[in-house]
Model the fold of this input.
Amino acid sequence: MSDEGLERAGAVMRVAEITHAGGPEVLRWAERPVPRPAAGEVLLRVRAFGVNRPDLLQRKGVYPPPPGASDIPGLEVCGDVLEGDCSGTSLRVGQRVVALVNGGGYADYCVVPAGQCIAAPRGLSDAEAAAIPETFFTVWHNLFQRGGLKSGEHVLVHGGASGIGSTAVQLARALGARVWVTAGTEAKCKACVELGAERAINYRSEDFAQVVREATDGRGVDVILDMVAGDYVAREVGCLADDGRLVIVAVQGGTAAAFDASLLMRRRLSITGSTLRPRSSAFKAALARSLEQQVWPLIESGRVRPRMYAVLPAAEIVRAHQLLEAGDHVGKIALTWN
Ligand SMILES: NC(=O)c1ccc[n+]([C@@H]2O[C@H](COP(=O)([O-])OP(=O)(O)OC[C@H]3O[C@@H](n4cnc5c(N)ncnc54)[C@H](OP(=O)(O)O)[C@@H]3O)[C@@H](O)[C@H]2O)c1
Done:
């Protein structure tokens, strides 16, 4: 351990903990011992951390951390590598990185498997960098690896103004897809078009499936990124093109879905989905390398940039949760320690 590390042994850090299941007010600042990195892990001094809807679900008690993960919320950070096991990676002590963490991001310090860190993209603030991992890892895997979205294809992204949606719109557009979105207000629809969507459908006033079918002369879209499920599934299956792929990343509209299964045969459709958090460190590390190679150049060239809704001081974590819960945001909310 470094001299600085020795000084920190026994040191405490600030964390935002969930006192019990409930609203934003159940988050409370507390002190905990600075965690020690295990084999294969590094200790980060956190500069900024992002807030995501899964954090709200964890706070409400309906999305518990997987076994072995910290009970402190927070799935993404930007920070400096202080010490730990960088073997087998290109990380070095002192490096500014972004990290997809398994929990514990709402803190001064955080441990993370080294493979889940990526050098922070050049040109981004700490808050912007912290806002990358959760949505970029999720979208890259689901839209491109599972959904197989290709240049020239049509994709429909539900919740286009969300953290996930705003990332999906930009990445899909940058990689040559034609992007359509749904959003719940005209203002959000306008923001999605500014982000790169060709067509934004207000799902409260229009039937997205009908709009898609009419606008594509009945052909449909090649891929749908769905965070609603429930009764959306039947409509989605009805507006996918031949060989279309439906990728489900959340079930905000319910888990049960009834749909015409014969369409899967007649139009050769696929339905898939995944959740990122319980996946192995090896899986997340492989995803990190893929992002580093294929997506980081898009970020560093300015073609893709996390869309920030609010950057707040860490002390305002309750307000950050209130803002995300209110649902007026477009893009991401992140908090900084400085
Ligand atoms: N599977 C995974 O690995 C994974 C990882 C991260 C997040 N997620 C999930 O992905 C979702 C988005 O996460 P986030 O952090 O980006 O949250 P967020 O910014 O709070 O976004 C939630 C979005 O859901 C949209 N929505 C709700 N009902 C809708 C409907 N009926 N039709 C269309 N859109 C609807 C909202 O759109 P409006 O505000 O326009 O109504 C909002 O933009 C969450 O459900 C989260 O749990 C999954």
